[in-house]
TrEMBL record:
Transmembrane segments: none annotated. This is FAD/NAD(P)-binding domain-containing protein. PROSITE patterns: PROKAR_LIPOPROTEIN (PS51257). GO terms for molecular function: flavin adenine dinucleotide binding; glutathione-disulfide reductase (NADPH) activity. It comes from Glossina palpalis gambiensis. The lineage of its organism: Eukaryota, Metazoa, Ecdysozoa, Arthropoda, Hexapoda. Residues 15-340 form the FAD/NAD(P)-binding domain. The keyword NAD applies.
Length: 477
């Protein structure tokens, strides 16, 4: 193995920081570290700096969601007096959509000026010891680098179920967003989590047939009242749900379609089958710890996730972990980026601030968008008991849907407060257009100590959906 020749910067290590994984979190940490004058190596098999491209992955999703909204707008435009002659015959040009997103992604991928100060290694990193990392470059060459600090930010990979035909006939979200040909025919999305529901929503919004299969409840862990609205809306648009079902096998039929056999828990585990043209697995993701030879350093683990403390330190000195590979952290792009940035600040500028993992706002790009910040009703009840919380709620009719009345039955908002002096707000939830954009502002407010009294004392912005929160006087029993 060749040892790389670089000038020594600190102690006896070639680098101040070696990042294994240059995705969302790893790259954010590397960028902040070089900005603060550290000497940084970043190892990633994807084009040297994958963070920009994983960010672009989220861009794919948002643009596809936007394509769905536009399709709906074309239909709705007629209500506003537009003459849309062929609205009924509208169809999506999948290849055009993918190529437009690809072109836009090139713009997202424009290099950050700080990138040139990072030493990139296009390959896979694995531990030799707590200060040394072996790099297997894409061209199969091997190198060894040493670092004073090592960061693990290798994220997770999609999981395939261990059933016959799952690998041969199924794809994952990683492949879905760049499918070369349109997903015509019938698609089965298996999972029921965020990724599954978003892909199902996109397929439906682009006029493709889709069924969701989930082993238990859909969007488990989210506020179930809100989830029911999201599901009702999707069902009303034509998405089929097979709940409490799990696949047993997939096989190819003579006409090259897929026969999916599954057990239906709602019918005494009866075996049933259906025919599809495509199966998308969205049943979860898992860190590949063996690939980074984690046993060479042996940090404390929780299943396949690395346990870290509030400083993102693993149980091995000088080895840190951030992002999806860590245990008990929200698996979100912005969380990984913020954690990486703050870690670099603590390591190289003496800053002390740690990451606040509480009250991170989320949004789901289902056809009826859902966004929230803070506790779900279930969590609030568990922590403070029903008598310890006060809930305000109500349906609202977005003005932008007033002429079409489309999906207005499911536009709903809810505020959960603690029964205390001033009623501090524990959680806010909304389904409806631009839900995430609305929640961004309220998440700042909640993180700054928003109370029910302050919310109701705020004058809303006229003719917006967000203003309904300031007039949500109706209490839930
Ligand atoms: C389909 C999908 C949609 C999502 N949508 C959203 C969203 O809308 N909003 C949101 O906030 N989050 C979203 N996420 C989650 C978000 O992408 C992750 O939480 C975030 O990217 C985690 O960052 P990370 O740095 O831990 O891992 P990643 O960004 O996944 O980066 C890990 C990097 O490590 C590299 N790597 C792996 N093994 C090695 C190795 N041995 N050596 C070197 N490098 C290695 C990989 O190539 C990769 O570049 C989505 C995720 C998926 C799968």
């Amino acid at each position: 193995m060749k040892k790389i020749e670089v000038e020594k910067h600190d102690n006896n290590y070639e680098f101040d920081l070696v990042c294994i994984g240059g995705g969302s979190g790893g790259l954010a940490c590397a960028l902040k570290a070089v900005e603060l004058g550290a000497k940084v190596a970043c190892i990633d098999p994807q084009r040297g700096a994958a963070g920009i491209y994983t960010n672009a992955g989220i861009t794919y999703k948002k643009q596809m969601h936007q394509a769905c909204l536009l399709g709906k707008d074309i239909r709705h435009a007629a209500y506003y007096g537009w003459n849309i002659c062929s609205a009924r015959k509208r169809s999506i040009n999948w290849r055009k959509l993918i190529s437009s997103i690809e072109n836009a992604t090139e713009d997202v991928a424009k290099e950050d000026d700080r990138m040139k100060y990072i030493k990139f290694f296009n390959g896979f990193g694995s531990f030799v010891d707590a200060h040394s990392v072996k790099i297997k470059l894409i061209n199969n060459e091997e190198l060894l680098v040493t670092g004073k600090h090592i960061l693990v930010a290798t994220g997770t990979q999609p999981v395939y179920p261990k059933i016959p035909g799952s690998l041969e006939y199924g794809i994952t979200s990683d492949e879905f967003f760049s499918l070369p040909s349109p997903p015509t025919g019938k698609t089965l999305c298996v999972g029921g989590g965020v990724v599954c529901m978003e892909i199902a929503g996109i397929l439906n919004g682009l006029n493709f047939n889709v069924t969701v299969m989930a082993r238990s409840e859909v969007l488990r862990g989210f506020d179930q009242e809100m989830v029911k609205l999201v599901m009702k809306d999707m069902t009303s648009r034509g998405v089929a749900f097979l709940q409490h079902c799990f696949p047993k096998s997939i096989a190819l039929t003579r006409c090259k379609r897929l026969i999916v056999t599954y057990n239906n828990n709602q019918k005494n585990n009866a075996e049933e089958f259906r025919i599809f043209d495509r199966v998308i697995w969205a049943i979860g993701r898992r860190a590949l710890l063996d690939d980074i030879n984690i046993s060479a350093i042996n940090p404390a683990l929780n299943d396949s996730e690395i346990i870290v403390n509030e400083y993102e330190e693993t149980t091995v000195p000088n080895v840190y972990a951030i992002g999806d590979i860590t245990s008990g952290r929200p698996k979100l792009f912005s969380v990984a980026v913020a954690a990486g940035d703050l870690l670099a600040q603590r390591l190289f500028s003496g800053a002390g601030r740690t990451m606040n993992y509480e009250n991170v706002a989320r949004r789901i790009f289902t056809p009826l968008e859902y966004s929230f910040v803070g506790l779900t009703e279930e969590e609030a009840e568990e922590r403070f008991d029903r008598s310890g919380i006060q809930i305000h709620h109500g349906y609202y009719e977005p003005l932008e849907l007033a002429l079409t009345h489309h999906c207005t039955n499911f536009c709903y908002m809810k505020v959960i407060a603690k029964c205390d002096e001033h009623y501090p707000i524990l959680g806010m939830h909304i389904t409806g257009p631009n839900a995430g954009e609305i929640m961004q502002g309220f998440s700042v407010a909640i993180n700054s100590g928003l109370t029910l009294h302050k919310l109701f004392a705020t004058v809303g912005v006229c003719a917006t959906n967000a203003q309904n929160f300031t007039q949500l006087f109706n209490k839930k029993n």
